């Protein structure tokens, strides 16, 4: 960017932050253009124009005072208009001829009243200005005015007022749009946060069920070890090893609960009874239910199946469940779906794809204003240090791909 353009932008920003200074510069510009014209140009010759007084120092001072009143036109538009009308009357009473600065200042004052005040005040100011214009032109002007000139000048005054009023309405319209956009943005952020909080609470409750199961196993094993420790030390040591392994898993899941519960617990669910949580072992039953709805679903399992941690087991199942639910809602009646599980030594990759037509619908429902479904997917995968990719697939349809580490 050139220094000249940068300087112009800086000056423009300075004027926008100081509107009163900008109006003062406007008034000075009018004076620089109009004052020399007052004294250097002769009045038109004719019998009517002989009644005008030749501009003198008093006339120049009155023009300067009237024009410089525009400095306060945005802050006190009605007062400025009244002041300019009073100055115009004072010059007309002394039969000074009209000049460019005071005439333009009068029109700008009418515009300012319409542009910076409400309908009642702007209508009052416009009426005062229009009445003064007619009185000064028809009654006080020592020159005969033709009807064409009168109509043209009256239309100019009315047009300036209408322009100011339209610009005010336009500014109000854009301000309302900006305010509405800001409110929608805040509401969207609030909805997304509420969805995340609710989903985290639900995930935490499911992890709580997993931990409760492991603690129950530890309790049973500890009781068995206590009863047989004197007569069967080997079995007791085996029970202790089981307790140690299950305890480590429970501690790992407890840490995840502490990590996910960053908000207050849901009081309505505080007394909810514990229930077994589904896992990948229940995937066949889930796919059967989906097929009963008419959606064709195929399952592939690649690699040597390994037992993931209980939390990953629940998270992978819920991910598949949510993805297939979205397919049922958005993909269409003729769509097909595929579920793939890839096992490696270190991680589990889950892919759910369909060939339906619901890509745009899913992105509109979830991308711009995320609902509980996608929020739950992201929260679950992130909780276990995994990676998630969601989006349209090549050739049409929609795809979800998640990678879960098998080791915590």
TrEMBL record:
Protein name: histidine kinase
Catalytic activity: ATP + protein L-histidine = ADP + protein N-phospho-L-histidine
This protein's GO CC annotations: membrane
Keywords per UniProt: ATP-binding, Kinase, Membrane, Nucleotide-binding, Phosphoprotein, Transferase, Transmembrane, Transmembrane helix, Two-component regulatory system
Gene3D superfamilies xrefs: 1.20.5.1930, Histidine kinase-like ATPase, C-terminal domain
Keyword Transmembrane helix among UniProt keywords: yes
Keyword Nucleotide-binding recorded: yes
TM annotation in the entry: 21-40, 52-72, 119-139, 145-164
Domain Histidine kinase/HSP90-like ATPase, first and last residues per copy: 311-408
SMART domains in the record: HATPase_c
Superkingdom of source: Bacteria
EC number assigned by the record: 2.7.13.3
GO MF entries: ATP binding; phosphorelay sensor kinase activity; protein dimerization activity
EC category name: transferase
